Automatic annotation (TrEMBL):
Gene3D superfamilies: 2.60.40.3820. It comes from the Bacteria. Residues 3-181 form the Up-regulated in Daf-2 domain. This is Up-regulated in Daf-2 domain-containing protein. PANTHER family: 5C820-RELATED, 5C820-RELATED-RELATED. InterPro entries: PUD1/2. Signal peptide: none annotated.
Amino acid sequence: MATHQKASIEIVNNWGGTLLSVSVAHKYSDEYKNDHSWENIMNGESTSSTMVDFNTGWLTTGRDWWVVTWIDDKGDTYITDPMNFRGIVDFLERIGSDIAEPVAAISAWVATGSPEPTSKAIAAAVAVTSAVTKRFLNSEGTNGYKQHILREEDKNGPTKIIIKKGEIEFQSNSGTSTTGFRKM
C-alpha cells in the first residue's frame, strides 16, 4: 500500500560565490511534480526548506527525479547533467527564445563589473531558472533528470542539494548521490 509523504529540501551554496538564482524541479514518476526557486544565496549559506511529494510503501514503483539549474554571480547559467545525452540539448534549444531577454539583463549587470547584483539582475536570474524548471516539469519524460530516490526516513529531515564547483550532491537521511553539471 502506497503512503503519500512530504520531504523538505534545501539548497546549500558551496559554489565559492553568490548564486543569483537556483531552481529545482522534482518529479515522483508522473504522480507528483514540484518546483521551487530561491534567490541571492551567498556562498556558505543554506536556504529555507520547502516540501516535495513522494510515495513510500510496499509495491510502490515510483522514482524521484531531479533537475537543478542556477545562475552564479558572473552571470553564467548551469544545469545538472546526469549524462542523459541528447534530450537536454534538444530541451535547451526549445527554450532559447523564452530566456533571451532575461539573459541579456544578466549580461548587462555583469558588464558593469559591480560585485553586488542589482534587483533587475536577480529578477532576470529567477526568470531564467524558473523557465527551465517549468519546462522540465511540463515534459513527462525523465531525460536530463538525476535520480535520487527518497525513502520513508527522508520525511524526517531535509534533503540537502549541495552546489559545489565540481558536482551537485543530494544528501538525505537514506543516502547520498552526486551528479555533474554543465554550463548552458
